[in-house]
Amino acid sequence: MSSVERQRWDVVVVGAGGAGLRAAIEARRAGARTAVVCKSLFGKAHTVMAEGGIAASMANANEHDDWKVHFRDTMRGGKFLNQWRMAELHAQEAPERVWELETWGALFDRTPDGRIAQRNFGGHEYPRLAHVGDRTGLELLRTLQQKTVALQQEDHRETGDHESRLKVFQEFTVTRVLKDADGRVAGVFCYERESGRFLVLEAPSVVLATGGIGKSFKVTSNSWEYTGDGHALALLAGAPLVNMEFVQFHPTGMVWPPSVKGILVTESVRGDGGVLRNSDGERFMFDYVPDVFKEKYAETEEEGDRWYEDPENNRRPPELLPRDEVARAINSEVKAGRGSPHGGVFLDVSTRLPADAIRRRLPSMYHQFKELADVDITAEAMEVGPTCHYVMGGVAVDSETAAAVGVPGLFACGEVAGGMHGSNRLGGNSLSDLLVFGRRAGLYAAQYAVSGAGGVVEADEVDAARAEALAPFDGGGENPYTLHQELQQTMNDLVGIIRREGEMAEALERIGALRERAGRVAVEGHRQFNPGWHLALDLRNMLLVSECVARAALERTESRGGHTREDRPAMERSWRPVNLLCRAADGGVVLERVRTEPVRPDLLALFEKEELAKYLAEEELEA
Ligand code: FAD
């Protein structure tokens, strides 16, 4: 077998979105020689698409805000299934991470007295999202890129080489995490997209920061990169994924024209006053406030409207319920025949804000609708419907260190990591998650690496990875695009926003059959930039992750957050202390039930007893 080029680093970060770059910066600052590998161009990660903002209790817009309120909102949003220590660290550290970003050059929108402005978002008690218009992710990533370059310039001054301690391998795709004979992480195997050449990066620490899984679904807000690679890499390396049944369907994606179906309409539209109406012109969300949230949301349109001016004395409008609630409500309205002409509902900001305010506060939305749908949102309502947006499930990690469970040297942060958001993520809590846990992952990965841990990549591991990557060139005639389309349709139709037992069982059968066909996937041509080959390799990941979602969704016989079962519509308190772990086995996936760690008493004390009684299982209340 021909030799594959090898390079030695201390830490390899897979992914250059917000989580990956924040991890890489911290690892480099902690003294580790750090390589970053990313599938697309440097600066083009999914994070640039984030619109609404970063959630952090800086209390600039409401002095009553603090980390405890943010923690409470996050736990409520996740229906108490969050890994509570992550939610605590996230709420405590998010403000510092935002301030830090500003010292690195981020330019957030300001309040009239010059502080960082914060906007309302669903499920957040106070205006909490620091933002840059509706292009916050772009500014976040730009700032992290700028910091990366600044560190490289520092290294150049000291060593004469910009890339001596921090190097970005752009347009390289990792297909395997490699381990040593003792089961410790030893590096990664990747290919360069343009040339097709293979490369092994040896390192005792590997940080997965690859983002989400949306490309397994037909209608999604996610970009082409979201093929669940990090989820699959972790599974194949022996780490479990936690609670993969929880997939967030954002309530407001574009529904028309078909070519743009699924593209996100930011929650900021509702945060800034936009309202949802059905075809009868009714603000239907007032009919969909669940019991657990009744006391916190307005009962009349008048009260909801007053809240924008006087939040102290009024309750928020139900358009700002957590995303899972709003998505289900829209789904029900459409099903009841009260949808818009193209199968969504109406989202109207044109009658709520002056045209120039809309153009100023929501510039991307204005252009998106004008250019893609020929709709002027300053004069007309948008048509919107649910779109697959975010995965709450992910690599099971230690809350403090972001270390993946059971695989020494493997770390995960950002959307690929599970636990933080429980069964449903609040808007704005991802960008803060990336910064908080990106920093932690980088720090602990560096500490682990420089402690002298980690072994040597075995030659047969490299040979196996190489053979696996080349297999589609000798495949048996299955077309990767056909298989991908069939998988997307299956996930959309059978494991989508509303789930049923029989359909999920059917999905598992279809996924099994697709996996078998994927074993014969064939591509033509050569290794130089060959999208068919790239997709053929991504298919393994999407199939594995889809099986995790379907298997866990079938197992959890209740509805909670991003998992709604028509045949089990209630949230069952007895399921609260249960996490579902997926592990790779025999080419597929097996499930394991594990108990969640009991929430620390001082954190439980932040909630009223009556509220806890709505969420916690009987035995947890008695304890
Ligand atoms: P990403 O930013 O997606 O980065 C993943 C990286 O991994 C990329 O560099 C990719 O190339 C790389 N990668 C993937 N697989 C491989 C591989 N096999 N080998 C090498 N590299 C690989 N959240 C908020 O908090 N606020 C918002 O306002 C908000 N708005 C959003 C709007 C949209 C349209 C979308 C889709 C999401 C939004 N989110 C928002 C969610 C948030 O943007 C994402 O959850 C977050 O950016 C994920 O960041 P990440 O660093 O985990 O992954």
UniProtKB/TrEMBL annotation:
Coiled coil: none annotated. The keyword Isomerase does not apply. The keyword Methyltransferase does not apply. It comes from the Bacteria. Gene3D superfamilies: FAD/NAD(P)-binding domain, Fumarate reductase/succinate dehydrogenase flavoprotein-like, C-terminal domain, Succinate dehydrogenase/fumarate reductase flavoprotein, catalytic domain. Residues 484-592 form the Fumarate reductase/succinate dehydrogenase flavoprotein-like C-terminal domain. Keywords: Flavoprotein, Oxidoreductase. InterPro entries: FAD-dep_OxRdtase_2_FAD-bd, FAD/NAD-bd_sf, Fum_R/Succ_DH_flav-like_C_sf, Fum_Rdtase/Succ_DH_flav-like_C, SdhA/FrdA/AprA, Succ_DH/fumarate_Rdtase_cat_sf. Residues 300-320 are annotated as: Disordered. Residues 10-431 form the FAD-dependent oxidoreductase 2 FAD-binding domain. It holds the Pfam family FAD_binding_2. PANTHER family: SUCCINATE DEHYDROGENASE 2 FLAVOPROTEIN SUBUNIT, SUCCINATE DEHYDROGENASE [UBIQUINONE] FLAVOPROTEIN SUBUNIT, MITOCHONDRIAL. NCBIfam families: PRK07803.1. This is Fumarate reductase/succinate dehydrogenase flavoprotein subunit.
